Amino acid sequence: MKRLLTLIFLLLPASLSAQYFGERVTEKSYERSSLFFKSHFLNTFGLQRFQNAAVGLIEDPFLDIYLNPANLPAFEKKSTLLYIDFRGDRTEAPFRDYYVDYGLMAAETDAARFAYPPYIDPRWVSQTRTEPEPVFSFGLLTYPFGKSAQNLFVGATYQIIHKDEPFYTVPSWIYNARAGYDAFENRVADVPIIDRFSGEDEMMISGHLFAAYLGYHLSPKVDLGLSLNGVIHSRDGSYLNSVRSPYGGIDPSEYEYLNQRERIQDYDHLDVSGGLRFQLSPETSAGIKVGYLSGKADQQHLSADNSMYAYGDPNNSYNESSGFNDASTTQTWNHSGATRYGRVSFSHNISDRRKLSLYFRYGESDIDLSNASTIRDTSFYTSRWEWNSNRSFYLYESSLSDIRTGSGNRDRWTHEGLVSYKWKLSEKNTVLAAVYISRDKSRIKSIEPVSASRSSNHLSYYEPSQPDTTRRYYRLTEDKTLLWNYESLNWTVQLPIMLKFHLNPNWSVLIGVNRILESWNIEEQTTAIFARRERVDDGQTKVETNFGERYTQPRRRITEDHTDLITSFEVAVSPDLKINLLVEPDFDDRFRVAQWWLGFRSTF
């Protein structure tokens, strides 16, 4: 009897559900990459925390031409530059580890199965992950008519990304199947899961990043340039965990468990820009650049969960058990839109040894969002307990269906600027210093009609001396519309300082340090407008119509600071061939190389 009462208690709807979040919109599970709807270029000093400050600070033909396609390179006695690099990826995970799933952390305990929903850092919505570094990069800048006719300029770059990563779960799910529990977080049964076979567990990333440049010296004081860059990127992967009975599926105590997840993601864009550069005086130049980027991102998430358990011998009249579970989640996202941007730049030689440069860039993105989710869940369990004529019977049923479609828009406004100072201390020593500031504001608004229905039913029967029969039926039906508003404001300040030493005509060393300060201010609110909500609890029906519920997350203010170090060793094998090794060390717990690049430059 005590066992039966405990079972009935566990079947009551739980107040904390870590399995189904009915008021969480589909758009919140979308993964945003650092490549999406953002201009791409070959950044020859693009180590993770130096890439933003490198443009406008370091004088390099590939950085200068991204700053303004009218910044045509000047080759002394040569007409062509060929660049190739091989990059080591960072040792950290490329996606932002902005959440802690307490349920998974404590999954070995019974309490965890009723446990808390995962804590999700709200920055996940703004940018989920950074992509792996290209396997190799290739760049070619040339004046096709030779060094004596440096008026027409052409260039091209190409980078390829190809890497596999472990499959990881997106934390902002609406429904996550959990063996032994239904959508109300009711415990159906203790499920014995032994990991006897694991299938695929990987994410495959593939990307092609390319750019083309065209420039012309219109006059001694005016240059013009055009650029086209594009990205073709995909990431897909699957996870399979399959469990079988240790006796090959014949023994009556057999059980099965299948958990399969799959994600497919595709993205591409084309970015066209043009620029003008004006030589105002022998010491001063100014430039302007405008551009338009059009892109599209599609994602899918497919999930399946299939369980079956059976205990005891059906020939015996005691301790029988059974079970069945079926879950399926299908989600799709389609994003399309454009980014418009412009940049003004200025450069002035204060003296033969000192130079001041600055730029300001403004960009705005307008992206249309559409998504859909189809969630299905079934559950069935039957049990029988007989011991010395102490009879008991238990039957359980459950069902869940959640169908929704959403639409909305994502707006983004970016302001960034840099002021740099170059001081040539001597013929062999140079100091570079800068202040980089960016302000990035994102706003997401989505509307998502939802038709959701959950039901639960169980029957208990007890009989030795007096009958004890319990029935319970619970159903919740909702016709609602979810309105989600998300705003994120990010400020970044970077203070890079670099020292370059020419040890001799063949060797040079660069040492740089970058102090980075970041802050976020994030607000999030979900409003559920109910056309109808009906609750049925053991024959008692309650109907509510035309009302709303608002869920406001506390405003989050987050700050971070980093200090990163970079070293560069360059050797001139000959006047026309240079080899450069970039190394980013890390001193968190122990010394290690967080990232390295090996680059080759040849002029001819």
Q: Could you explain how this protein is built, in words?
A:
The protein is mainly β and 604 residues long. 5% of the residues lie in helices and 64% in strands. The chain has helices at residues 2-10, 51-54, 61-67, 102-105, 110-113, 123-126; strands at 80-88, 99-100, 119-120, 136-142, 152-165, 197-219, 222-243, 255-279, 284-309, 320-321, 324-349, 354-387, 390-424, 429-463, 468-504, 507-537, 540-574, 577-586, 592-603. The strands form 2 sheets. A 16-stranded antiparallel barrel has the order 1-4-5-6-7-8-9-11-12-13-14-15-16-17-18-19. Strands 2-3 form a two-stranded antiparallel sheet. Strand 17 and strand 18 (577-586) form a beta hairpin. Mean pLDDT is 83; it is low at 1-18, 94-117, 191-199 and 246-250.
* Biggest sheet overview: 16 strands, antiparallel, barrel
**What is the C-alpha radius of gyration, as a whole number of Å?**
31 Å
Oligomer: single chain
Strand % is: over 45%
Count of β-strands: 19
Strand order of the largest sheet: 1-4-5-6-7-8-9-11-12-13-14-15-16-17-18-19
Briefly characterize the structure:
This protein has 604 residues and is mainly beta. The chain contains six helices and 19 strands. The chain has helices at 2-10, 51-54, 61-67, 102-105, 110-113, 123-126, and strands at 80-88, 99-100, 119-120, 136-142, 152-165, 197-219, 222-243, 255-279, 284-309, 320-321, 324-349, 354-387, 390-424, 429-463, 468-504, 507-537, 540-574, 577-586, 592-603.
